[in-house]
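Researcher: Good morning. I'm working through a list of sequences from a screen, and I'd like to move beyond sequence-only analysis. For each chain I'm collecting a predicted structure so we can compare shapes side by side. This is the next one on the list. No need for commentary yet; just the structure.
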Amino acid sequence: MNVRNIDQIIALLKADGKKRVILVGKAASGKDYARRILEERGYPYQISYTTRPMRIGEVHGKDYYFIPIFKFEDLIKMDFFYEYVIFNSWYYGTSNAQMKTRDCTFIMTPSGLAHMSEMDRKDSLVVYFDITEEIRKERLAIRSDADTVDRRIEADIRDFEDFKNYDIILNDPNYK
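Model: Good morning. C-alpha cells for this chain:
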C-alpha cells in the first residue's frame, strides 16, 4: 500500500492497533524528517545506539547514542540489545527496553528488521521510504557525513536487495 504523508501513516497505526512505527529506507530517503514529524505528533523516537561518527548538527542522546566500539561490544555480551547490525563497518542497535515501549517510532535497516520476533514484527507498522537514487544523491551531496555518497549508495544497494519486509511504502520525496 502506498501512502503520501505522515497523517496517513498515523491513521494506519491507529486503525491497525500497532504498538510502534518502524521507518526503513536508504540513505537520505527522509526517515529522520519523518521521525521528527511523528515526534511532534506524539510518537517519540526511540534513539538507536551507534559507533559511527557524529555528523555535523547531530546531538548525542537526541539523534543517536554515540558510543565507542568497545562499549557497544560489551553491551552485546550483556544481552542489552534486542537487535543490532553492522552497517558500513559501524554498529547500530536497539535495546531490549526500547522494544517494550508503545506508541513510538524507530528507524531500522532491513537486517535489523530481520532480527525481530514474529510477534514484535506483527505489532509494528513498517514504512519503507523508497525515494529515487537521483534525489538521494542530491541530498547526500549536501549532507556533512562521515561517509562518501558512493559508499552509502553501494551499501544501500546491498542492504536493500530483495527487501520486501514492509507494510506500506512512501515514495513521494516531498511528503509532509
